[in-house]
């Protein structure tokens, strides 16, 4: 289908293209527009019917939305904005420059303007910044029949009707009821008789990661957002949480690779912007790596006396770094999923020590046999390298397993204690152990 769209654009058969676009999914159209150059992308967007254009607009990246806003007539822009779900409109406004925001705000009602400003003032990455006000609210005095009539009347413009929220006259949240119950239960029953009062909710200021963990823990598709007085102010839907999880995972991967987080698409980010995100951490790691050089310089006399020891240094440093990275990756992921808490540091340390002993002994034994049989090294040298290998694996796994928890305790992102940083630390530790063991056993 993509090829067909590109072909019609190239042949400028726009009337045919308009008819074929009507039957396509909004997300697929957004991908096609993203692949086109700016001019053709705007042409395709303007060919779409209003309802479809609104759906497609919500899937476009912020830079494409900006291009379209600048290119289309203000009347059509207002029509699109009016049809967007409220949370999608807030996401859009957050990414737009101030002149675009002002252009849109002057065409909305006073009530809508107050709501938009309220949402834009919520802290970034908070539950308040994610929520939408488009939900179905019910009164507990309603019958099931009344509730269904109310949903049919008001539900068309709501983001979801599958979960309805029961509030009192002061908008305090009293319960929830699913559409499934409303359809299946006797229509004469009161909402108060069938609503669930065991409610999982979040505050407007709760962090989005905490909200995502609640969705996972309770297998939710929506969650109500309340203020300090338990008044319902909005809901968060699963589609927004999926986006949050995607962003958070991307951010963690970038931090684990020693880069500053960047939300822009890779191919659309400038060279200098990408370099700026990487230089700082590489500089820090480069300076930290001088520890390794200092250790080598301090034991230079040993290397001069036994040059064969230098050949084993890459083996020890790489194995130690890999072992530390394995542990840190598992613990960072465990913290992110809520499987590992701050109070579990002793359990983590004990488990990693036991695992590392098994792994370290196995690797040390295998290396001892390798050096004696294949390399035909001196027994003492083989023992020094193998013993150090086992000890450094134990140290690396202990360090890799506990440092992410320490980072979390210090209110730092555990992801910074991953790959490159752990490797730099355990490399230095491995060499300290190596040269000290060699000094003792070789009498130097």
Automatic annotation (TrEMBL):
Q: Where are the transmembrane segments?
A: 279-296, 302-320, 355-375, 381-406, 418-442
Q: Where in the cell is it found?
A: Cell membrane; Membrane
Q: Which UniProt keywords apply?
A: CBS domain, Cell membrane, Magnesium, Membrane, Metal-binding, Transmembrane, Transmembrane helix, Transport
Cited function: Acts as a magnesium transporter.
Cite the PANTHER family for this sequence: MAGNESIUM TRANSPORTER MGTE (PTHR43773)
Q: What terms describe the molecular function in GO for this protein?
A: magnesium ion transmembrane transporter activity; metal ion binding
Report membrane topology.
Multi-pass membrane protein
Q: Which family does it belong to?
A: Belongs to the SLC41A transporter family.
Q: Name one GO cellular component term.
A: plasma membrane
Report the domain of life of the source organism.
Bacteria
> What is this protein's record name?
Magnesium transporter MgtE
| Alphabetized SMART domains for the sequence | CBS, MgtE_N
Complex formation: Homodimer.
Q: What is its main location?
A: membrane
CBS domain: residues covered: 195-251
